[in-house]
Amino acid sequence: EAYVEVDEGEKLPNYEQKKWEETHLHSAQYRFGAKDAKARHAKQEKQYDILLDDEIEFIQALKIPGTKADEAKEEVSEYQQKRMTIEETKKSLPVFPFRESLLEAIAAHQVLIIEGETGSGKTTQIPQYLYEAGFTKEGQKIGCTQPRRVAAMSVSARVAEEMGVKLGNEVGYSIRFEDCTSERTILKYMTDGMLLREFLSEPDLGSYSVMIIDEAHERTLHTDILFGLIKDIARFRSDLKLLISSATLDAEKFSEFFDDAPIFRIPGRRFPVDIYYTKAPEADYIDACVVTVLQIHVTQPLGDVLVFLTGQEEIETCQELLTERTRKLGTKIKELLIVPIYANLPSDMQSKVFEKTPPGARKVVLATNIAETSLTIDNIIYVIDPGFNKQNSYNARTGMESLIVVPVSKASANQRAGRAGRVAAGKCFRLYTAWAYQHELEENSVPEIQRVNLGNVVILLKSLGINDLIHFDFLDPPPHETLVLALEQLYALGALNHMGELTKLGRRMAEFPVDPMMSKMILASEKYKCSNEILTIAAMLSNNSSIFYRPKDKIIHADTARKNFFVPGGDHLTLMNIYKQWADTDFSSQWCYENYIQYRSMKRARDIRDQLEGLLEKVEIEVVSNPGDTENIRKTVTAGYFYHTARLSKGGNYKTVKHNQTVMIHPNSSMFEDLPRWVIYFELVFTTKEFMRNVIEIKNDWLLEVAPHYYKSKELEDSTNKKMPKGKGKALTELVRS
Ligand code: CDP
Ligand code: MG
């Protein structure tokens, strides 16, 4: 009874039933109900008639050969149908009845906090209301920030569609390395990081009439910094309207921060969600996810499923497992559509999650945290929550930063569950025990500003002329030691002088929308005469989706192909090699396909490279090429990344130089079998151990050359290695002494 047989021998986990109610699930039709649908249909028919003749006449007048009136009729009616659905949808959103009162409140107050549950229409509707109310008449724009790139892209696409304009014209988005706006853009969605950068060129945000800081509850580092900056600007720009929009909970805190700004609450609409916990902890939550999806699929009424995973890799694994198992089950089960959504997914694939599920089928959305509050996917009835999340973690003592998978907070878990109750009563399956929920999860997530490296933000604030960071108006201040460490690191990089002021180098570094270490590396390429190569390396490293394509059924071929690209010296040079070979084929997609390289990642790297090249011109550095001199290229990398130095120690382990932390070379690295004595890594990822990803071999004396104020020669002694030949050691020591 407790188990459901899906396939020969396969058992499904057993959920502890907290509460059981037979719920009547409706899918697409739910929102309007049958009666409404009929009325709507009648209305649609009428409207088509009016417009149709015009359209057909128009098409006939154009005398396009081969265009039959019938076809035109069909096309036009399809278009009309779409428009009608859009209008209906807009009116059905919880925010719609409050349109007028919201606009009144905005007119009456300079700063307004808007609180409303996810999916109420805050992000997509409010900018349109403002536009309709004339806020862009004087040639100014309405801005709306998003913590996540995917959200900025997909929401702006949706709004462009609703307004019937081409994305990039009146409605556009701007994310790092990708600007999809034009002179005509009046509704601009952008990542919070991009707005921060806009302060550099337009410190008063003069081209905006309204700025919406959206998804404020996410409390990303950039959003938190924006709070302080924008509060200041609002003081002397009384014509700027400021909206802080948040999903839940934190509204009071925001209000208090913005001098008791009023809160506008959009009443939510939520159906009950039954929550199920596992009886025992799950050893393998990916497997548990797969099994739970299948269990839902065979035992529960139709309705789409949303699964929360921590990143692209997990999503891909889960997708493969699900595809494989459903294929085995064949026609024994109903159709199951599997759609992934994560930050690096190409945008045309992202839109798949919003497509309607065909009748009789079920959709499973495999998503990262993005679907927690930033994106609303309609018709989700079931949520599967393994209870994990990928987070930046930063140790201010050691300066070590890495991405780790951590348990979510209770607030997050509840948001996730809530996604099941938007259109009908739903169910949420938590892949952890009720005890774990009660005792192991924190109430709220720690805001990002308290757990990341602040180097980036410090350099940006300094270039905005904000010198006193200790007294900056933070909603929640970062830990003192994190701030101090950021200042120290920037000093060592040469971006700040001993007074903590921005140097000329620092000013140039701030031009680049990348981490200080990377911008330092790029600028150092001038000295080492290899800017062309460093641009490629920087672009390949900045593109954070995987370059290599590794399908499960061709792993051996893929790995061989990958190893064929290896060159001596390390991964940065290998990346450079891949890019160069690709460029030599005139950027061919066929070449990528044959070599198990992701064409999309390469295209993106090329875009990034072009932009970095433009910025290099701006800071007046010539593009010079010196591909043969790999020593100079590696020295340039060292000039930026000298913090990330590790030295070989016992058993193939490495120790970081300054703090003696144990780290290892990632198995995918070209250096995995070489184990050079001194290495520099690009980043750390924590899975079972701290792994260094993208590693190059260096010589220890380069460190003294590029960072003499940071390293002392004593720290860089090669104790494990070169034993001095007898007799000579003493003489040398004396030489040094004298
Ligand atoms: O911002 P908030 O969470 O309040 O809601 P929203 O993002 O404005 O979403 C309002 C509606 O637009 C939801 O019903 C979404 O499903 C829909 N939407 C969509 O269909 N496609 C998108 N790319 C974004 C939103
Ligand atoms: Mg939103």
UniProtKB/TrEMBL annotation:
Keyword Nucleotide-binding: yes
GO cellular component, one term: catalytic step 2 spliceosome
Residue ranges of every copy of the Helicase ATP-binding domain listed in the record: 103-267
Entry EC no(s): 3.6.4.13
Coiled coil feature spans: 34-89
GO biological process entries: developmental process involved in reproduction; mRNA processing; RNA splicing
Keywords of this entry: ATP-binding, Coiled coil, Helicase, Hydrolase, mRNA processing, mRNA splicing, Nucleotide-binding
Domain (Helicase C-terminal): residue spans on this chain: 292-465
Name this protein carries in UniProt: RNA helicase
Species in which this protein is naturally found: Tigriopus californicus (Marine copepod)
Source species taxonomy: Eukaryota, Metazoa, Ecdysozoa, Arthropoda, Crustacea
